[in-house]
Design brief:
single chain; alpha/beta; Nucleoside Triphosphate Pyrophosphohydrolase; 2 domains; 5 helices; 39% strand; NUDIX_hydrolase_dom
Length: 198
Amino acid sequence: MYKVFINEVPVFFTEINTSLTSFKSVLYQELDCQFLFHEISKNPEVKINVICDNLENDWLNFLLNFQVREAAGGVVKNKAKDLLWIYRFDKWDLPKGHIEKGESKNVAAIREVEEECNVSGLVIDKELQTTYHVFEHKGNKVMKVTYWFLMHTTIESQTLVPQTEEGITAVCFKNSNDSLKCLSNTYGNIKLLMEEIL
């Protein structure tokens, strides 16, 4: 299954005969991207399940409708098992950013977390699920593919500094209860990712 968020509307791509409760189903063969975007703009509460004959092929064909940009980021825990959050554009988010040419996903993830939060001593524990979301940039539809890693920092006490030039206004570690509260003001793909963690 592939789960993509288009303007915060969940659009899931599943194998044929898979039905999801509360989702509007459409066959991939009958999917018209312009119509899909129109439906989403008209009804932002809709949830869409795209049923595929061949999930991998249909997903790759769907990606041809977008400029694909790859990013990497981290879900970071400190020694107290608190989670690292950033506050950007009036929402709670997780640190992530563009993968540079020739850079591996895991190296990019550590670099972006370090740059956005001024945190160091990062060690990757495991790779998490990949998230997908669509946005418009200069009239183009962009598919952001983000590779996520669970990390921890080995340094007990450090001064976190938000990377303000990236629009980040706050950086902090939050315990599980406070992290759950962040989910009420974050993005769909972050909620999806945090289902694995919280």
